[in-house]
Amino acid sequence: MSEGSAAAQRHPAAPLATVAYEWTRIGATGFGGPPAHIALLRELCVERRRWLGEEQFEDAIAATNLLPGPASTQLAIFCAWRVAGVPGAMVGGLSFILPGLVLIVALAALFLGGSPPAWVLGAGAGAGAAVAAVAVQAGVSLAPGSWRRAAGTQRVRWGAYVVLGAVAAAAVGPWLVLVLIVCGAVELVWRHSVGGTRVAGHAWPLLPLAGAVLGTGSLGALTWTALKVGALSYGGGFVIIPLMQADAVGVNGWMTDGQFLNAVALGQVTPGPVVHTVAVVGYAAAGLGGALLASAVAFAPSFLFIVIGAERFDRLVANAGVRAFLAGAGPAAIGAIIGSAVPLTLALGAAWQYAVLAASALALLALRRSVVATLLVAGFVGAMAALVGAPLPS
């Protein structure tokens, strides 16, 4: 980074109280996922407060998109770091995360604890029915930009990575992380050995190892699931869905299919990062303590990436090895997001939910309605269906 950037890092531009207030505001009003978060951070840091220049902000977006995990969360932490150093990163990151986390844990307790009223279950079933359409919309929206970044013969491999990711999400969910890493490694090796791209040595440690064993029992399994969400998910927040579904429903049995669909819907309609969904999975696995553990593990890598590596973001953006790995893992993640629609659709348990899914797909893919509005309407339809006696998924 330039000397001016370094000076900005050494001399905080705002008190921590200001950081806490502004980042809490964004965390509490940031409905709509990463596009909304980026717009709010740009308005605050570039346009209104002028803490960052336009080019600096765009470089931060590029760098955080090269990291695994929730990119908009990492961007929020990075902006706070630029404003107030490491203390700012911690305060700003927590302020951004906590409003939505508190809300989603409260909703998890409502949906998963005790015996909620029928209309609440119906609202969850209605919103959950739309989730498969949301997954397709999320993947489709990411595909054009990724396709444009590919060129020449790389587009053939791009298509292969997308297909592999989709098949893995649809058929072998527990192994999805391995598929993403393999696709990234294949592209890295291809560019190094065939394309002649020089891979810097320090790029290799960015390739995570998926074979770590973090302990046995429910808490160990929950920790591993949350770590995959926070440190091994490439391609944006929505790729966490196929990563979590197999663990939460199939392997560990913490949730039913219907409860998982509710969890994804809650992650979409609450403010803040989509990764909050992991808190619902944690609540299902081990109550409030599980929700807090899963959230801490999932978000910890984002803080570490920024605190340890933010000063090197300029080198990260320019690193050919990192870009090569993401050129393989990124398309595979897009395919995984789209492919997750298959198990999400198969998870529906009532006939009327398929009608809600079809209407949601029309709203999102053809009419281009917002995700939050679509999920809220689907939830309202589900609540009404429950009130008139329609069967609810078991």
Number of strands: 0
Question: How does the overall form come out from the CA principal axes?
Answer: globular
Distance between the termini: 55 Å
Number of helices: 18
Name the helicity range. over 70%
Structural class by sheet pairing and helices: mainly alpha
Keywords:
18 helices, about 400 residues, mainly alpha, disordered N terminus
Structure overview:
The chain has 18 helices and no strands. With 394 residues, it is mostly helical. It folds into 2 domains: 97 residues; 287 residues, no CATH class. The longest helix has 42 residues. The protein is globular and about 60 Å long. The relative contact order is 0.17.
Can you summarize this structure?
With 394 residues, the protein is an all-alpha fold. The protein is built from 18 helices and no strands. The protein is globular, with a radius of gyration of 21 Å.
Give me the secondary-structure topology.
Layout: H1 3-10, H2 16-29, H3 34-48, H4 54-66, H5 71-112, H6 118-129, H7 131-149, H8 154-171, H9 176-193, H10 217-231, H11 240-251, H12 257-269, H13 277-309, H14 313-318, H15 320-339, H16 341-346, H17 351-366, H18 371-387
Helix pairs in contact: 2-5, 3-5, 4-5, 5-12, 5-13, 6-12, 6-17, 6-18, 7-15, 7-17, 8-9, 8-15, 9-15, 10-11, 10-13, 12-13, 17-18
